[in-house]
Predict the 3D structure of the following.
Amino acid sequence: MNPLPEKKHADRNGPDADARISLPLETLRQMGVEALLANGLSPEHTETVIEAMALAQRDECHSHGFHQLPGAVQLIRRGPLVRDAVPVVNDRSPSLLQMDARFGYSLLSFQTGLPVLVEKARKTGVAIMTIKNCYHFSALWPEVEALTERGLIGLVMTQGVNCVAPEGGNKPTFGTNPIAFGWPRPQGIPYVFDFATSVIARSDIQMHALAGQDIPLEWAVDSDGQPTSDPTAALKGALRTFGGHKGSALSTMVELLTGPLLGDLLSAESIKVDEGAGLTPLHGELIVALDPDVFLGAERAQHFDRAEGLFESIIAQGARLPSQRRYEARQRTLATGEVSIPRHLYERIRSLTTTTG
Amino acid sequence: MNPLPEKKHADRNGPDADARISLPLETLRQMGVEALLANGLSPEHTETVIEAMALAQRDECHSHGFHQLPGAVQLIRRGPLVRDAVPVVNDRSPSLLQMDARFGYSLLSFQTGLPVLVEKARKTGVAIMTIKNCYHFSALWPEVEALTERGLIGLVMTQGVNCVAPEGGNKPTFGTNPIAFGWPRPQGIPYVFDFATSVIARSDIQMHALAGQDIPLEWAVDSDGQPTSDPTAALKGALRTFGGHKGSALSTMVELLTGPLLGDLLSAESIKVDEGAGLTPLHGELIVALDPDVFLGAERAQHFDRAEGLFESIIAQGARLPSQRRYEARQRTLATGEVSIPRHLYERIRSLTTTTG
């Protein structure tokens, strides 16, 4: 690979370790592909994993972008992730598609099952794809957007490494258990939210730990159940759910629907699989697709216009729609073709390729 | 009707107006039936409406119990609720059942569609029942429990009178937009939550207004967007969503899935139908039923045992499962057969029957 033109960005925090470089997203993508292939991940998995990281990087979701690559290589090197797992498709019913990822990454199962899920939703109005026995590291909004791009409504949930205590408790019981939802909009970008049912995503605490920054006391408790501003102590303790007992109830729902309902692990069971290394959790994912055409027929356009009225009324009173920052970042990236990552991450990714390639 | 034995309960707040009486639930139910029939509601609607109030009263959910009866009679008397509406069934697909309540109460549509919904879920694993053009006043947990009693998982949502501002906004845009979920448990009572996506239910503020009690400042803003402790001012202003922008996003999702997706009204549109009286909103309801037997087959019991382990771990660390207070109240009511309501409500219900009966 040719040496890259490196630009040092304005450094907000001082130390050289925080220096960033800009590079074409396509270059970073190619580096990622080489790193994963060099470490033995199959071409099919490599393609879907790097695509997910590239989408996140494009939208400046740094914690789900190429920041994930070193951990992915670690997981691939040490196992038990299966590098060339071929998803098994169980076409269970007119509305239910069950994917078994066979202990590979979730993304290839999603891509393999997506056309079948879409076809089912178009016929029956509602269809579910489940993915079990999968490793999962990505955000959920790319999958939601894969549905909204096809005119469908999407609702997606999954677990995470167990690191969240139920409201009133003190043990890492739940994953961050995100819920994502997407509504296709007639013009332009969809209405999409994707949030952890914890106060914050675990990756946000990891980023603070990497940056050596304190966290707010309300985010987490340490292993003794005491609020802590130390991100490292928080990672050893437990995060709290958002919104008190309501968020805790939602997180429980996600555990149930993406664990036992799929015959898959709970967050607290998943952690045992990689012997406590906590790299990337092994668990299930639930994807619901609704086709408004089946619900509404020829009246779809008229009722989706009323939904636009709701979005307009939210904006008109000074509130924001979710994902707007992400969409703005996307526009910036698409305009320049370039993304920015920390220099240490860039060097790390280069080393992942050259060491074993 | 014979005069009832009346018992005055310990009065926490002093004034005689707060005195309560105990009476057999069956007696109260009969009074309710007579009041609704006397005001011209059809026997089929009367049965389902009073059953919903009786279930709530049994579980000491006072705001959804017979507290709702005077408002129901008001709605029946002044319209536009259709007193003898016959639900229209549209069996849209193997997984989608669309009920049109024809501007009657939602409950008769739910009861009419329930056997079809259950049959669909048992065949395909996932089925949705929608109810549109309905008036809705009841809690969602009775419908969730109707599914868990049949071994199914339930997820139900509906809107409400528009009284909640989006996070960062100041206008009554959303209903309280509750979400309810139920998971059947092998032994005993199900795991059920049912909560408003507002900080609090509007009925809680109504109860405070009736009792002349202040509300916490974080519950609501007045019509100028300022936090208020006056429940009457709050009812004229807007409630806030729980959990900041996450709760606001969930509330938006409920608006979309129970409004435009069903060809039905948004909360802010619904309020215009009864000319701003705000009695009972007209809008849609979405009921999702999942059959774990289709997902898991013979392995269901083993995986549901692991779900029990999750519940046990939550309780073991001192956290509570939702609905426990309600289940405890249920046990008390079932043991004595009696419920307690304010004397003024009792007198009001009597007057509803005798005035027009």
Remarks:
- The first strand of chain A starts at residue 20 and ends at 24.
